[in-house]
Amino acid sequence: MILVIAEQRAGTLNRASLETITAAQQQDPTAVAVLVPGATVSGAARELASARVNEVVTLEHPALEPYTPDAYTAALQEALAQLSPTYVLLPHTYQTRDFAPKLAARLDRAIITDVTAIKRGAETAFARPMFQGKLTADVTPAGAPPFFVTFQIGAYRADRVERGAAAAPIRALKVTLDPAAIREHPEPPFQQAKQAVDLSQAERIVSVGRGIKEQANLKVAEDLARALGAELAASRPICDSGWLPMERQVGSSGQTVAPKLYLALGISGAIQHLVGMKGSNTIVAINKDPDAPIFEVADYGIVGDLFEVVPAMIEALNRS
Known about the structure:
Radius of gyration: 21 Å
Number of helices: 9
Helix content: 25-40%
Number of strands: 17
Distance between the termini: 49 Å
Largest sheet: 7 strands, parallel
Strand content: 15-25%
Strand order of the largest sheet: 7-11-6-1-4-5-12
């Protein structure tokens, strides 16, 4: 069995879970099941049941909301003992990075993180970037199953999930959790978090780089993002300068994104940035340098001054 552990928050499914199901279906479409943990997951389970999977298993317990690594590790350890999967696949989200190594270590099992591709052969290997994307290694897990594998956001596309002819069956799995064993007691989210953005869930992104020249010029990018209904993002130098908050950084040291549309304004295309956005469905780059590396990954490239091109785009969008 290939078991995908889906991620949801307050009943809302994380889109990265669908990307991981796509990966599982490519590994073996006949052996996929999905487990969705949380306090109330019926809505997310029904959404997942539309995919071509053998079954959706709900793991509901009051101690799983709000999320804590102790509760998730204990609950999933018991669930895996009941389900006995060969592979456990997860999206490489902040939450997964928090509990999955702990769970794998507790079970003394192999974990391969940030995978970008599956290579099937005599043995299944998983490709993952190394040295900030400069190299890619093919890794084969050793030891006894289950093998844990996390998939980089954008490595597979959520809209490529195979849908089933009928809804997959849903069944409930029961586990026993000792609340006293949960050491973490999360406080309410910090107020500023209400303004935080999860770029991995954005369908359209306008991203700016050094070519924006100065902070005052961000307005032209903000106007374009508003006209497109997009989120604003940036390369590392912009965030390091304090022109935009770090939560809006895309790249190997920021967020990994896979929107339907990624507009790169004045971004040269350093490998550290490309690692974070190359999984986008459609990439449009605007840069004065015709030899900028960003054009190597762009679907559409405009060689020109962004301060001439972007206002024309905004005007056209506002007319439509």
